[in-house]
Amino acid sequence: MGEGELKKVEAAETPSTTTELAPMTLTPVTEEAVCKDEKTVSPPPSAEKVDDSKALAVIEKEKTEVEKISGHGSHERDSALARLESEKRMSLIKAWEESEKTKAENKALKKMSSLSAWENSKKATIEMELKKIEEKLEKKKGEYIEKMNNKIGLLHKDAEEKRAMIQAKRGEELLKAEETAAKYRATGLAPKKLFGCLG
Question: Name one Pfam family in it (predicted).
């Protein structure tokens, strides 16, 4: 190709690319679209002689990218944008869901921790009361045991005194019986009452 043909190709390509890319400026622009737009714009013809082999390669590359963009059509572009919007919305929803789940888990853990602390506090209070009651009961038990031991001691003392009195009375009665028997022996008389059951 000559330089004249190159300029014709460039001139022919430039108007079609700008008209085909104009609708893309209305949609959200991505980095790839910006790069593609920049590649399709041809530089102004310079006064210097351009290396023909390099220029042809650039123009052919630009032409294939333009054909890719224009070949998809607006419907496919719209569906791709809609798909991207849908994916973006879904990822936002998923992130929100994860955030809410994490909040709910943290809230539940905090409440469980608070409940455990409350339970432990109440349990400790009740155990202290129980310990105080047990101490009081042990003290009362000790006092009652002491009272009962004192009563048992008094009872034992009374029983010992009564045993002593009974022993003393028995000794007196034995002595009296011996004296009376000696008297009867000395006088030779028989006692009026023989044994309590015979008399």
Answer: Remorin_C
Banded pLDDT at 68 (limits 50, 70, 90): low
Q: How far apart are CA 95 and CA 67, in angstroms?
A: 38
Token duo for residue 51: 């290396």
Put simply, whether the predicted model's pTM sits higher than 0.70 gets the answer: no
CA nearest to 59, candidates 122, 112, 5, 20? 5
Mean pLDDT value across residues 13-35 = 46
Q: What phi and psi, each to the nearest 5 degrees, are found at residue 47?
A: -75, -25
- The single-letter DSSP state of residue 192 is S
Contact 36, 86 (CB under 8 A): no
Label each residue of 20-77 as H, E or C: HHHHHHHCCCCHHHHHHHHHHCCCCCCCCCCCHHHHHHHHHHHHHHHHHHHHHHHHHH
Is it the case that residue 19 has pLDDT exceeding 60? no
- CA-CA distance, 183 to 172, in Å (whole number)? 16
Confidence of residue 135 (pLDDT cuts 50, 70, 90): very high
pLDDT of 56 > 70? The answer is no
Are 184 and 190 in contact, with CB atoms under 8 Å apart? yes
Tokens of residue 130, six digits: 């129980």
Token code pair at residue 142: 């000790």
